[in-house]
Design goal:
Radius of gyration: 14 Å
Shape: globular
Mean pLDDT: 92
Order of helices and strands: EEEEEEEHH
């Protein structure tokens, strides 16, 4: 749906899940907000971000390029971590429908099976 990088400021999407595929280069991205994990990603990696997952690019190679996509449904909005946005997100995130297919492996992919499990079974 788009080709670019990952924003260098903390943000999330409260109305849709996001798939990020690294096409070129490498970057250090923090997933999970200010206290999240910093992960090195590079060409060939895919990150699946459930709605509400904070993310921010901390550093990137000059050629870093990501292909991003969202499942059909509500429009994506960039949400900044403010108290007002957090209160709204607590209402919208639980309403985001699960994708019908795994964005990498298709209808029978592992992500579909994982997301259908009860929440506490994979924590």
């Amino acid at each position: 749906m788009w080709r670019n990088g990952v924003y260098d400021y903390l943000h999330y999407h409260a109305t849709v899940h996001e798939a990020l595929g690294v096409a070129r280069g490498h970057a250090r991205v923090r997933f999970g907000g200010d206290r999240g994990r910093e992960i090195e990603i590079s060409a060939g990696d895919v990150a699946i971000l459930p709605a509400g997952t904070g993310h921010q690019c901390l550093s990137a190679s000059r050629d870093f390029c990501v292909i991003g996509a969202y499942p059909p449904g509500p429009q994506m909005h960039v949400t900044l971590p403010t108290p007002e946005n957090h209160a709204k997100a607590l209402q919208t995130i639980p309403e985001v429908k699960l994708p019908k297919t795994d964005p990498v492996m298709g209808a029978d992919g592992p992500l579909v099976r994982l997301w259908k499990q009860p929440t506490n079974s994979y924590r």
